[in-house]
Amino acid sequence: MKRNNWILGLAIAAIVLSLTTICLQIFVFAKQKPTAEQQYRDMITQHLHHFSAPLPESLTLCGESVPLDNVFVREALDRELTSIMYQHNSTFLILKRSFRFLPEIERLLAKENAPDDLKYLAVAESALSDVTSPAKASGFWQFMPTTAKEYGLEVTNEWDERYDLPKATKAAVKYLTASKSRLGSWALACAAYNCGENGLRQRMKQQNCNNYWELSLNSETSRYVYRILAYKILMENPRQYGFNVRKKDCYQPLEYREVVIDSTITDMAAFAQKIGCPYKYFRLINPCVRSNKLTNKTNKKYTFRTLEKDSLSWAYLVSKLDNPEEFLN
Q: For FRET with 179, which of 97, 142, 274, 309 sits at 20 to 30 Å CA-CA?
């Protein structure tokens, strides 16, 4: 009897051990072979991260201090910086375009003795693209037709100097400098660029306030100066905000030669071919051209660009970089 009990106990122990081994194997196998759903969730945990946009300890706009300790100023800036930081496609394109266009804008601003920070106003206005707004404002600096003419720009159905970066930049500086002189600060001048100086003066008078940071304005203008500042923060340190853009992946500065014409052009496509530039590329690098002809009864001198021989080659343009693998910073 005792022998039978011993055999039975041994059998039960063997069964328990086998079941335990099987359970352990199932557990280990399950750990080693997660389901597709679990793999997906693990991937999200590992790679999908969202961070609050860090604000700098101090900040200036055209040399003027921004009161970052003011809770409302800080929150308004945080809103714009967060928005720009997570608009990945738009911000990536702006950073890539900036490599081609910002150096030229910086030179133009320096030539006019204007603050370098004004380049970020052009970014906020147009994303460094020759766009036209629903209100018919056009070019990098988004001039309305009437205002453009007031500041010496030619605007016709055939030729529109709002798309001429040097001339439009000079006109924008003239507008902003005059506004700053009358209003007292660059922040107010930038706000006036968005909503118009007369409207801004009216708000200032109603509220007896000449401090932009304390002025109650419409939603668009209230956000406008903060958007300029947000672009400044991010574009001065893009990698801190998650944008890793190699110089060779940016839009490279192009090489041109200029052709000056003082007579009527009856066929712009034929003219482009004559100066050795395919019409498609001719229109891209001469955005002032708005028609297939240019009437010139006064023998005014018009300057056109045509690409240098190798400027169509990405490999050639990148070869001119000191360190093409370097990131924008």
A: 97
- Which structure tokens are listed for 74? 């800080």
Quote the number of domains for the chain. 2
Number of H helices, E strands in the chain: 13, 4
| Residues in a beta bridge with 60 | 65
The total of other beta-carbon atoms located within 10 Å of residue 118's CB is 26
At which of 245, 280, 302 does a domain end?
Answer: 245
Query: What residues contact 79, with CB distance under 8 A and at least 6 apart?
Result: 223, 226
Helix (H, G, I), strand (E, B) or coil at 294: strand
What one-character-per-residue DSSP string does 141-161 give? TTB-HHHHHHTT--B-SSBBG
Same structural domain, 83 and 190? yes
Q: Has residue 225 been placed in a domain?
A: yes
Residues 181 and 286 in one domain: no
Q: In which band, very low, low, confident or very high, does the pLDDT at 49 lie, cut at 50, 70 and 90?
A: confident
* Alpha-carbon separation of residue 113 from 10, 122, 207 (angstroms): 96, 17, 33
The domain of 309 spans 256-319
Say how far apart CA 216 and CA 207 lie, in whole Å: 8
pLDDT tens digits along 81-131 = 999 999 989 999 999 999 999 999 999 999 999 999 999 999 999 999 999
Answer whether residue 17 shows pLDDT above 70. Answer: no
pLDDT the model gives residue 128 = 98
